[in-house]
Amino acid sequence: MSDSDEGYSLLSAKSRLLDVFADLDDLELESIERWISSLSYKKDLEIKKSLINSDKLLKNIGDSIKKMIPFEAEMSTENIIPPSVGDQADCNKDNTCHVDEFLYDEKQVAELVKRGKLKRQYCLDCSSRNVQDLIFISHSLSRQALQYIFKVLLPNELEDKQILDIGSRLGSVLYAAYHLSNASRIVGIEMNKECCEVQEKIIGQYSMDLDRISVVNSDVLERHDIVECSDIIIMNVLDFFVDEEKHREMWYFFKKHFKKGSYLILNRTIAETLGCLGLFEEFMDWLSICKPNQMENEVFFDVEDYSELYLYSIN
Ligand SMILES: C[S@@+](CC[C@H](N)C(=O)[O-])C[C@H]1O[C@@H](n2cnc3c(N)ncnc32)[C@H](O)[C@@H]1O
User: Fold this and answer.
1) Segments forming the whole domain that contains residue 181
2) How many structural domains are present in the chain?
3) Segments of the chain assigned E as strands
4) Inside any domain, residue 127
């Protein structure tokens, strides 16, 4: 980098900082000044840099997965059906488009739209500008949501703990757990064989330690042995994959087999999840909502974006 380039980037950084500072009142500014001259600022900066690095790693994994699966990120062997109850019951094949958030972040989606590979709208009457925004859904959690789970919601110390992802699909939760936590065991259970093959290829391609991470091709209902010894269970909504009856069956199974004291992370409140299945009252005392364990790391996230991740403990 030349002297003049360096001068320019420094000037631009100062200008961006001034934009931020200009929005603060005197008290806020004083607090920022104290933070910058303290040791905790250096520590925060280190964490921020390590989050950027792990994000790059997860992005590389996502790019490898894109080469293995169809653009729509849904397998030919899957039977994915819009749900008839719950907050996604308005989805149907015409108004809904699946864009996998682990594979495509907002910037990448904007790029796909620009290149015409993805549309944001659909035509209501096939002839005019009378268009409607498509509902974008994702079957995977985004990289940012995964970082929030491991760096804010869960405890930092997970040695000797087993993490289970119910319905591990492309493996996003497993790779994030591998790189963002020190959990001793990370297990994914996924009923679709093609999805399991993708996860196994990625685990091999990135030389992950097979004593630490594994994928099991099964219906979770067949594997109470794994469920019973898991300390942290993560479940991204299954609405598109199981019907109401199976959903109810699964929750009775979870109630019977989740270990007391284990954590459950959901991306929808338990009241909404069980309410639409008519089970909430019956399950109300089974779990309690918990505060994030690493609140000090919220500074690295735009918390409003993650208000839809919930941490529960099993009573
Ligand atoms: C919404 S995706 C979640 C993907 C991943 N956990 C994530 O958050 O990125 C749900 C996955 O659960 C799987 N699934 C649904 N019911 C299941 C069951 N009973 N046993 C195992 N896998 C199941 C589906 O095949 C699908 O791949």
Assistant:
1) 143-314
2) 1
3) 96-98, 121-123, 131-133, 135-137, 162-166, 185-190, 213-217, 232-235, 263-266, 287-289, 310-314
4) no
CATH number at residue 218: 3.40.50.150
The verdict on the CB of residue 168 being under 6 Å from ligand 1 is yes
Give CB contacts under 8 A, 24+ apart, made by 38-45: 44/299, 44/300
Ligand 1 geometric centre to CA of 256 (Å): 20
Q: Pairing relation of β-strands 135-137 and 96-98?
A: parallel
289 in any annotated domain:
yes
Residue 300 Cβ contacting ligand 1 at under 6 Å: no
List, for residues 203-239, the tens digit of each pLDDT value: 999 999 999 999 999 999 999 999 999 999 999 989 8
- Indicate which residue's Cα is closest to atom 23 of ligand 1: 167
C-alpha 237 – ligand 1 centre gap (Å): 8
Q: Give a yes or no: residue 258 inside a domain.
A: yes
pLDDT digits (tens, 9 = 90+) for 171-192: 999 999 999 999 999 999 999 9
Q: Does 208 sit in the ligand 1 pocket, CB within 6 Å?
A: no
Instruction: Give yes or no for residue 238 CB within 6 A of ligand 1.
Output: yes
Say if 2 falls within a structural domain: no
Ligand 1 atom closest to 235 (CA): 6
